[in-house]
Design a protein that fits this description.
By secondary structure, the chain is of the alpha+beta class. It contains seven helices and four strands. It has a four-stranded mixed sheet with strand order 1-2-3-4. The termini are far apart.
Length: 200
């Protein structure tokens, strides 16, 4: 499977356009169509990711199927390429500390942060903190414990016990609206850690 170092001269501008305008699904569809014409299975992941983000969050069955499709199309893909195209909230951001307040200048989103050479490293231009992309929750937990801001591959199953405690209270309330129930092992609504709470 193609990694970032294997991109052709024809593909690189398509990827660059997607990275420059991460919210533009039309550019992602153009890129996906180009990949599909060449029999590249990365097209399936781009289509699945767009479908997943467009699903009605109240339609649990559609959400489950869309997330499963995202996971299925993720298998076998190059981690660096996935890190480049992923759209996800960052976690463990110290600007979410209730003592310091909520910094509305921070994009809070992996795809809106500045690229820095390695595919799994970005920098928040609001606070200049480094953000690392993690393919597993286990890696993210280690980095979280070291004080690192992280973005976690959205195909990981998340539960209340592995969405990090440092999240802003308003963000946590959207993830876990009923604190009276023990949900430590219940899967978290997948879109809740992909979509920004202020975006809806």
């Amino acid at each position: 499977m193609n990694g970032l170092h294997d991109l052709s001269p024809e593909e690189q501008p398509l990827l660059d356009a997607v990275l420059a305008a991460p919210d533009d699904d039309a550019l992602r569809l153009v890129y996906a169509d180009w990949l599909e014409e060449r029999g590249d299975e990365r097209a399936d992941y781009l289509w699945a990711e767009i479908a997943f983000l467009r699903v009605d969050p109240d339609d649990e069955e559609a959400l489950r199927l869309a997330w499963r499709e995202l996971c299925d199309t993720r298998r076998g893909l190059d981690d660096d390429w996935v890190a480049r195209v992923t759209r996800i909230l960052v976690e463990n951001c110290p600007n979410d500390d209730p003592e310091t307040g909520y910094d509305f200048d921070c994009p809070r989103r992996w795809e809106r942060m500045g690229l820095r050479g390695d595919a799994d490293v970005r920098v928040c231009e609001a606070c200049e903190r480094q953000v690392l992309f993690c393919t597993t929750v286990e890696k993210a937990r280690v980095l979280r414990d070291a004080g690192q801001v992280v973005a976690v591959d959205p195909t990981n199953l998340r539960t209340m016990s592995n969405v990090f405690d440092e999240l802003n209270p308003r963000y946590r309330q959207r993830l876990f609206p009923d604190p009276r129930r023990d949900r430590s092992h219940k899967p978290v609504h997948p879109l809740s850690y992909v979509r920004h709470p202020r975006a809806e």
